[in-house]
Amino acid sequence: MFKGHRIIVIGDAHDSPHIKQDRFKWIGKYIKSVKPDYIIQIGDWASFDSLSFFQKNSTQAGKLKDAYMMDIESLRSSIDLLDKHIDNDLIPRHVTFGNHEERVYRFEENIPEIAGMMKKELHDSFDNRKWKRSQYGAFKNIGGVLFTHCPLNIMGKEYGGKNCEVQVANDATNDIVFGHTHKFRDWKAPKIGDKNYVRIVNVGCALPHDHVEDYAKMNLTGWSWGIVELGIWDNHIQEVNNISLETLEREYGKKKS
Fold it and tell me: Residue 232 — φ and ψ, nearest 5°?
């Protein structure tokens, strides 16, 4: 019998009405085959480009944005597709909201007349589907390991940059699993004291393989596309297995649904 907890972590998926959803089927089939103790989606499940502050409504791109409910319906479709192929309602599943889910909260802040209406659509998408959720920036603790979309620093900003895992490890008192940067990294930092190290795992993203969002196409990316399987015991991450979207597609993409 496996010691501790086996957890599947799904990184930033950035679901959109304009991106095929096949990957949710492949991920679900993989989860069904390995039967983990928990499923965590690390946030930014959907992009919510309808609420993007970077595309002003007065611009041509802004005028072409989808309606919010199109994003919601696409999100719900992707959750249903994943759950259908997991085919096991008994596995606990949890989403740690990311900065893209946070767009819903920020948008409502600017329009008091609709306070609560847009958040309800977001919350219902998970609450009606047996997914638990935690707010952006909050930690979900499983076996002494903390899960969040991205740790926030002393100024309330996301850790970022080329070596953000090192920065997180310098400040952390527990092992931490997060996403946000779309780059897979497994970093172990020695510490002084009884808890003599922390391990930081960035799970990359769960977008289609080689898909780079438009905003990053001219950037230094180094993105990683896949999911991560963790073994946790003794309050630490003991095992890390990064499964690429390419592998999942080869294994499950051409089989009968």
Answer: -120, 125
